[in-house]
Design a protein that fits this description.
The complex is a heterodimer of chains A (233) and B (219). Chain A has 233 residues and is α/β, with parallel strands linked by helices. In chain A, 19% of the residues lie in helices and 27% in strands. The N and C termini of chain A lie far apart (53 Å). In chain B, helix 3 runs parallel beside helix 4. The chains are: A alpha/beta (233), B alpha/beta (219). Chains A and B meet through helix 4, helix 5 and helix 6 of A and helix 3 and helix 4 of B.
Chain lengths: 233, 219
């Protein structure tokens, strides 16, 4: 079996990154984002990147790191609210932005990874999102055509992974990761725990190994919380 | 006295039915979960990939990997499940969710909704709102009846870019409850008046074509 296991994020990116690439990033808010891989992209200094990611991180975390260094040319996202650097760059015209409805974004990535070039959805019909796109009536209702998305490199965060690349995500950190993992020429995964092949229950695997090219253990993790909300005891 | 935010949420909670799967937006909609009637059991869906969303955690049980779509920390309940964003929006778009309650900037008499973008201002994005209003079986808007400068938000036509076309079934504002005919030409019907509010006040603050239900309930 070909070795997929790498020492760290830097090693896992060896020979992979080049300017102008499209990166497919898992995560929702700061949950399930590929922290170590994003740091490694920052350190590599790769430029003119297009990032497909539901959010754009926050100042000082997630894709916010690559915004601060000016490495991102374009974002394809559904919501970018929590990022002052993002707003500044965008208002200065230094960043392109394509908003997709969240479900449309998820399905574009799923379709891209599944070999489906386009699909129809009722989301966004009659709104700015549908402008310039083909529409079609099915069963009396109007739908808009959306294209599948397929990138150069997928940056994925999972909870546990085995050496062959089988992955298990933890709780709400699954989000966009399973689709992103399928939708790029090269899929690189960071896990909290790297286990031997055979250690994961085959019935509990979320992303099968075939989608994964490279994997490394990124522990320890300092998981950040965007909106810590508690109730009184 | 017009309704407070909590009274609006409590009124919205009366629309919940036993067994419903419900998606709640940020703001007043989030408060709805505090007013679920005792004999009603609902399951909350959060579009980031969680079904069966519990209350906010106590300080010592915060888990960074358990958040709702507003990125707030939440807890599991018995029977919680997690899934991918693609599966989550299969639930949303596929019509598997019974009710979505969300906020709005404008609602038109034909059910058009605008709640994601003000041209010329920094746009944060639509998130899952367009998918929710397009796909969920019933859509209820909770909102202030007029904007800060006093302009009606219940309009003949939306002036802001739409989130969805003909998608809103009901509006609950501080003045009362309004049914919206999203399928036909019926416009907006006042079906319930908040205690202390007059029909004249509602008429004065509503730009949409308004019908008043005969034998209007006041609560």
């Amino acid at each position: 079996m070909a070795n997929k296991v790498y020492k760290d994020a830097k090693a896992a990116f060896d020979g992979v990154l080049s300017d102008g690439m499209m990166l497919m990033c898992g995560g929702f808010g700061l949950v399930g984002i590929p922290d170590k891989l994003i740091e490694a992209v920052r350190d590599a200094g790769t430029k003119n990147l297009t990032c497909v990611s539901n959010n754009a991180g926050i100042d000082g975390a997630g894709l916010g790191l690559l915004l601060e260094t000016g490495q991102i040319k374009k974002m394809i996202s559904s919501y970018v609210g929590e990022n002052k650097t993002f707003a500044k760059l965008y208002l200065e015209g230094k960043l392109e932005l394509e908003f997709n409805p969240q479900g449309t974004l998820a399905e574009r990535v799923r379709a891209g990874g599944a070999g489906i070039p386009a699909f129809y959805t009722k989301t966004g019909v009659g709104t700015l999102v549908a402008e310039g796109k083909e529409t079609k009536i099915f069963d009396g209702e109007e739908y808009v055509m959306e294209r599948g998305l397929f990138g150069d490199v997928a940056l994925i965060k999972a909870w546990k992974g085995d050496a062959s690349g089988n992955l298990v995500y933890r709780k709400a950190a699954r989000n966009f990761n399973p689709m992103m993992a399928t939708a790029a020429h090269m899929c690189i995964v960071e896990v909290e725990e790297l286990v031997p092949v055979g250690a994961l229950d085959p019935d509990h695997i979320h992303t099968p190994s075939i989608f994964v090219n490279r994997i490394f253990c990124g522990a320890p993790y300092d998981k950040k919380i965007e909106q810590r909300t508690v109730r009184k005891a | 006295m017009a309704w407070t935010r909590d009274q609006m949420a409590a009124r919205a909670a009366k629309e919940l039915k036993d067994g419903y799967y419900v998606n709640l937006g940020i703001g007043i909609p989030t408060l709805v979960s505090n007013y679920v009637p005792d004999n009603v059991d609902i399951t909350l869906q959060s579009e980031n990939g969680m079904l069966g969303v519990g209350p906010f955690p106590y300080d010592n049980e915060v888990d960074a990997d358990i958040i709702n779509a507003g990125k707030q920390t939440v807890t599991e309940v018995k029977g919680t499940s997690y899934f991918s964003s693609a599966d989550s929006f299969a639930m949303v778009r596929g019509g598997h969710i019974d009710l979505s309650i969300l906020g709005a900037m404008e609602v038109a008499e034909n059910g058009d909704l605008a709640n994601w973008m003000i041209p010329g201002k920094m746009v944060k994005g639509m998130g899952g709102a367009m998918d929710l209003v397009a796909g969920v079986k019933r859509v209820i808007v909770t909102m202030e009846h007029v904007s800060k400068d006093g302009a009606s938000k219940l309009l003949k036509e939306c002036s802001l870019p739409l989130t969805g076309r003909r998608v809103v079934d009901m509006v609950i504002s501080e003045l009362g409850v309004f049914a919206v005919d999203k399928k036909g030409p019926g416009g907006v019907t006042l079906i319930e008046l908040a205690d202390g509010v007059t029909v004249d006040e509602v008429k004065a603050k509503t730009q949409a074509r308004l019908t008043i239900t005969v034998g209007l309930k006041v609560s």
